[in-house]
Amino acid sequence: KMRRAKRIPFTEVEKECLLKGVKKFGVGSWAKILDHYRDVFQVNDRSNVNLKDLYRNLTKVKAGEEWVPRI
Amino acid sequence: KMRRAKRIPFTEVEKECLLKGVKKFGVGSWAKILDHYRDVFQVNDRSNVNLKDLYRNLTKVKAGEEWVPRI
DNA sequence: CAGTAGGGATAGGGTTCA
DNA sequence: TTGAACCCTATCCCTACT
Fold first, then answer.
1. CB B9 within 7 Å, strand D
2. Other beta carbons less than 10 A from residue B19's beta carbon
3. CA–C1' distance A36–D10 (Å)?
4. What would the pLDDT profile of B35-47 be if each residue is shown by its tens digit?
5. Which intervals hold domain HTH myb-type (chains A, B) (predicted)?
6. Which residues contact A59 (CB under 8 A, 6 or more apart)?
7. Predicted model pTM
8. Is the CB of B61 under 7 A from strand D?
9. Using 50, 70 and 90 to split pLDDT, how confident is the model at A71?
């Protein structure tokens, strides 16, 4: 099974589409969000699991940081 | 999170096991290598991340040094 | 089989200190 | 100042479950 050759950081556009998608379809609807913004996410070959991971990262409380609701 | 009390240089045995492990399991299979040679790496409490860092140091091109394939 | 959740592993930039 | 060892964490993978 092939691993990705290298890590591809998410772009600001990808992050914005993910957050808009969560507003539109709800948390956990990764496949729906991926399809709705497929033109954006296909560029870097993102999967529904990638979107789940990005959301987890965007919403997690960083060390020594106050919690702020994200969506 | 606890920082290590002191820096522990890698032994020659540790370096040999790492390079053998890379031949056996491939670059990036740090957890597998750690487990296969656990008797060696447990001595100084090495982690999979430690092995990744060691490999990076062993294979990196030093200043003013010609590049030589390492594995 | 497709999808999601959560734990775990890896990659690569950063940091420390001798 | 360089470099070996160590840290940080975004990204990616594995597996159980539905």
1. yes
2. 17
3. 24
4. 999 999 999 999 9
5. 2-63
6. A70, A71
7. 0.87
8. no
9. very low
